[in-house]
């Protein structure tokens, strides 16, 4: 088993918090849901049932799960095109997400958004955004509104390492810091953009953390494959933002198990890099951690089975769901439900 | 009634809405302490405070992102993009995010926000500070597009835009800021998607927008002296488009001219001409004629710029040639 240092991870876990037994199982279940859902989404893509594209969070589950378990109901999630995990982690049911991936009428957005734009306002998932960088600025707006309206809501914005090199990232951080907005920026550094290693196109070793000081922020680096540490980091970050002390920029180190999107076999990544990361699979290591702590394996197995049933049911219901009604095409451009551009 | 400039009408319009509704906020570069680079937003910071009138860094994407995120969580922001030319650096927020989010989320997210911007030429600012870009916005489903030509309309249409549940692009014309007009006292609220007939004539119909409206009206006076009586319609709102008023005005006279400040290709007049030709062909006496800026970036020299943007003389000459 490679050590954290072998993988360039921070040496001492900085965010060890006591996690109570109930939360431990919640984290485990959440990661298991994300893992099983993503694997199924991949299978369905290969069967041409998921059309277009899909970007999976396989290997990165601990980050979404930790925040999902830590955020309050009124808090807002802003995700990217790699957003299935973040949507699920806020408690959205699998069936409408699966149906959205299949383009069906029962989809989360009735088939009008697709895999890259999962949104469930009632769960605080304020959208998944597919143009790099924009949603950092939008998360600021939600945080600004919380501040102006005097609520203690926090906006949490997830994005990749590659996103730290676009202008919107820098505009968003500067404004968030200047206005002291209650927003947590979570960079999931999975080491790669689409097909280019982040280190080859970035001026500093840590794409997010090394930029923090430019905005007067503390650099925060977390082992994104350690669910316990991620949970502690999420708790700290949310507390900081909620207490009016301004934004947090967090860099969670992780690795995607598969390709960038669709059926990408990710052959461009050297085996020496991939293998150690696969060994530090966040789900496998967390399960081992729980068993070591004395959690009954039967309990974990029961969770695995429940989650598998949930995925099976979601798959069946999505496959059997009706196609979207064609009247949707010209609906909901405007708030009155229409798309009329003239009288 | 009060005689006031288009510039002062902007501040009055924003103040009217800030006063009425606590959820209205205003943000942009140099808008607060400095009162705006066009001095159109003076006094608002003092009256409403820095929380609701927020000076921002030079970060157009961050400005519009903040407006969008605030709009989806209960506020009604008015964002200023100083010159419309700068829309190019935040077009992602406008065209990909703000315009499409309601549709992509199947109606889950509403974005009641207004993007105000200084648009248009005539001030010798050169090609990067003078463009008329309404047609960029018009080409994107999900954006309402308004361009007032009088101080009264600035207030009324701005109020309608702020109260509208959808995103509205509000194009103020830089060349009109010093123009004066009579404005009624008290609250003014207009209706989006309505054109206004500014002058009635029987011989031809001239459609114009923003700074081209006063030019079309002057041209109509000159033409009247030459025996040609023109109807002049101020289009005001490109999306939604008041085709009812426009088609009625064109059908009555049988001859259409558009006066457009934008470069020729894909200007708003092209869309209107296509509607007119498809729907009231039999009422036309001749081909619709578009009077536009040629398809060039705007030059800065006063001599060149004046000869590039449609002028009163060009409107008069074009109409006379066709009508005589
Ligand atoms: C503005 C913009 N440029 C390029 C792309 C194409 N693109 C989609 S994902 C991606 C890689 C993003 O890398 P990163 O931020 O590390 O996120 P990851 O996919 O690794 O989660 C690129 C270049 C895009 N969607 N938007
Ligand atoms: Mg990446």
UniProtKB/TrEMBL annotation, chain A:
InterPro entries: DH_E1 (IPR001017), PDH_E1_Alpha_Subunit (IPR050642), THDP-binding (IPR029061). GO terms for biological process: pyruvate decarboxylation to acetyl-CoA. GO terms for molecular function: magnesium ion binding; pyruvate dehydrogenase (acetyl-transferring) activity. Residues 30-325 form the Dehydrogenase E1 component domain. Its cofactor is thiamine diphosphate. Keywords: Oxidoreductase, Pyruvate, Thiamine pyrophosphate. This is Pyruvate dehydrogenase E1 component alpha subunit. It comes from Streptosporangium subroseum.
TrEMBL record, chain B:
Pfam families: Transket_pyr, Transketolase_C. InterPro entries: THDP-binding, Transketo_C/PFOR_II, Transketolase-like_Pyr-bd, Transketolase_C. Keywords: Oxidoreductase, Pyruvate, Thiamine pyrophosphate. Its cofactor is thiamine diphosphate. Residues 4-179 form the Transketolase-like pyrimidine-binding domain. GO terms for molecular function: magnesium ion binding; oxidoreductase activity. Gene3D superfamilies: 3.40.50.920, 3.40.50.970. This is Pyruvate dehydrogenase E1 component beta subunit.
């Amino acid at each position: 088993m490679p050590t954290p240092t072998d993988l360039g991870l921070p040496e001492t876990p900085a965010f060890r918090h006591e996690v109570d037994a109930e939360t431990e199982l919640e984290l485990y279940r959440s990661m298991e849901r994300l893992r099983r859902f993503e694997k199924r989404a991949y299978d369905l893509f290969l069967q041409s049932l998921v059309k277009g594209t899909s970007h999976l969070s396989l290997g990165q589950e601990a980050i979404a799960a930790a925040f999902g378990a830590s955020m309050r109901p009124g808090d807002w999630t802003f995700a990217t095109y790699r957003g299935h995990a973040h949507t699920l982690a806020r408690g959205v049911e699998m069936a409408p997400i699966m149906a959205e991936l299949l383009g069906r009428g029962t989809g989360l957005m009735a088939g009008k958004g697709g895999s890259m734009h999962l949104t469930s306002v009632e769960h605080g998932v304020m959208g998944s955004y597919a143009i790099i960088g924009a949603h950092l600025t939008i998360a600021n707006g939600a945080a600004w509104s919380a501040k102006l309206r005097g609520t203690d809501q926090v906006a949490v914005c997830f994005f990749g390492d590659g996103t730290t090199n676009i202008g919107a990232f820098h505009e968003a951080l500067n404004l968030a810091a200047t206005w002291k907005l209650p927003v947590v920026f979570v960079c999931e550094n999975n080491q790669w953009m689409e097909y280019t290693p982040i280190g080859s196109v970035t001026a500093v070793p840590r794409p997010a953390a090394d930029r923090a000081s430019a905005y007067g922020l503390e650099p925060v680096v977390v082992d994104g494959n350690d669910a316990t540490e991620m949970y502690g980091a999420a708790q700290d970050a949310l507390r900081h933002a909620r207490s009016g002390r301004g934004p947090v920029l967090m860099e969670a180190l992780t690795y995607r198990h598969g390709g960038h999107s669709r059926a990408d076999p990710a052959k461009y990544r050297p085996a020496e890099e991939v293998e150690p990361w696969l060994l530090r699979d966040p789900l496998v290591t967390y399960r081992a951690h729980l068993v070591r702590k004395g959690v009954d394996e039967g309990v974990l197995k029961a969770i695995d089975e429940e989650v598998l049933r949930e995925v099976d049911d979601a798959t069946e219901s999505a496959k059997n769901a009706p196609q979207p009604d064609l009247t949707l095409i010209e609906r909901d451009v405007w708030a009155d439900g229409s798309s009329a551009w003239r009288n | 009634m009060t005689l006031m400039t288009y510039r002062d009408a902007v501040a009055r319009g924003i103040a009217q809405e800030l006063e009425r509704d606590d959820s209205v906020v205003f943000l942009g570069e140099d808008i607060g302490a400095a009162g705006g680079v066009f001095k159109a937003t003076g006094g608002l910071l003092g009256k409403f405070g820095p929380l609701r009138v927020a000076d921002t860094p030079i970060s157009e994407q961050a400005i519009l992102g903040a407006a969008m995120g605030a709009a989806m969580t209960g506020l009604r922001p008015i964002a200023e993009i100083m010159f419309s030319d700068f829309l190019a650096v935040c077009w992602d927020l406008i065209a990909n995010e703000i315009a499409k989010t309601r549709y992509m989320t199947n109606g889950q997210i509403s974005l009641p926000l207004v993007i105000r911007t200084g648009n248009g030429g005539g001030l010798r600012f050169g090609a990067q500070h003078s463009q008329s870009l309404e047609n960029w916005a018009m080409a994107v489903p999900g954006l309402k597009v308004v361009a007032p030509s009088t101080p009264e309309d600035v207030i009324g249409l701005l109020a309608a835009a702020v109260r509208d549940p959808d995103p509205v692009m509000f194009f103020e014309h830089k060349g009109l800021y010093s123009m004066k007009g009579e404005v009624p006292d008290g609250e003014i609220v207009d209706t989006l998607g309505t054109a206004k007939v500014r002058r009635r004539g029987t011989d031809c119909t001239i459609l114009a927008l923003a700074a081209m409206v006063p030019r079309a009206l002057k041209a109509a006076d000159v033409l009247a002296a030459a025996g040609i009586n023109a109807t002049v319609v101020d289009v005001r709102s490109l999306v939604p488009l008041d085709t009812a008023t426009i088609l009625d005005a064109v059908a009555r006279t049988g001859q259409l001219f558009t006066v457009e400040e934008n470069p020729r290709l894909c200007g708003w007049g092209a869309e209107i001409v296509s509607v007119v030709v498809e729907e009231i062909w039999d009422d036309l006496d001749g081909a619709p004629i578009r009077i536009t800026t040629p398809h060039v970036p705007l030059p800065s020299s006063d001599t060149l710029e004046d000869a590039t943007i449609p002028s009163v003389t060009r409107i008069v000459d074009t109409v006379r040639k066709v009508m005589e």
